[in-house]
Amino acid sequence: MIKNLAWVTTQAAHGRDEDETAVVAALGVAGCTVEIVNWDNKAVTWSKFDRVVLRSAWDYPERLKDFLIWFDSVSGITEIVNSPAIIHWNLDKNYLNELADAGIAITPTVFVKPGDVYEFPVSEFVIKPAIGAGSRDAASYDSKQHEIATRHVARLHTSGQTVLVQPLLNSIARDGEWPMVFFNGKFSHAANKRVTLPRAGSVDDLFAPETNSPHTPTTNQLKVAQAAIDFVSSKFGTTTYARVDLVLDNQGSDCVLELELIEPSLFLYYADAKCTHSFVEALIQ
């Protein structure tokens, strides 16, 4: 059993992780000592921890070079979860292509690399970076805003980013998204999340404002989400924690919007207490 654990955050996220208080307390009850530490704190001796758990390091996309230097260094001296292979794979949303190739339904997506020729959809659409979190650098546009959207793409390309162009699905405003949470590869609980992307604007905080609530998943939602988790497990081994964000496409079918394996919120605040205990077991076993 893990006895000494680092719960990794960043300074700007302090007090903003709804999962943190209950899980840290439950870890203590289970006999595990926990330190809440910023990933960029150079005074931390990472080797003293039995396991390092990425939880709310929500500024990593903007500081990616420094974050990866830290991550690779720490993973060389102690165990980090999720595993380095999983984290590196999940950093770039090009993983969606692999899910699609495996027959797992994804949100219709066009990947636009720097230098690519592209066209925007005729209806409303979304632009987001391939490496990003919290809806930062993501925005929605309509058919009259192509000029502004083009500048958005150019800005992301200038920073070396691949850009995702996706239709703004009809279901998003009506139904929101459904985060499906897994511990050790097994389904734990689900939630409903509603996020309104800025129209031709930007998210200046660590994450876009959300309205969340509990959700009981349908049989098909469980099937699609489990297929995504099983794909990752077959490729890298079991994830300690994972979140599959589902939406309905414009034909009314469940599909994967994103696969969150790095530092996802786990919506434990909206779940039964037994889900917190399941997470604790996954962290210390």
**Major pleated sheet:** 5 strands, antiparallel
Order of helices and strands: EHEEHEHHEEEHEHEEEHEEH
Number of beta strands: 13
CATH class of the largest domain: Alpha Beta
CATH architecture verdict of the largest domain? 2-Layer Sandwich
CATH-assigned homologous superfamily of the largest domain = ATP-grasp fold, B domain
Kindly describe this structure.
- The protein is α+β, with helices and mostly antiparallel strands and 285 residues long.
- Helices cover 30% and strands 26% of the residues.
- It is built from eight helices and 13 strands.
- The strands form three sheets. Strands 11-10-9-12-13 form a five-stranded antiparallel sheet. Strands 2-1-3-4 form a four-stranded parallel sheet, with helices on one face.
- The longest helix is centred in the last third of the chain and has 18 residues.
- The protein is globular and about 55 Å long.
- The mean pLDDT is 93.
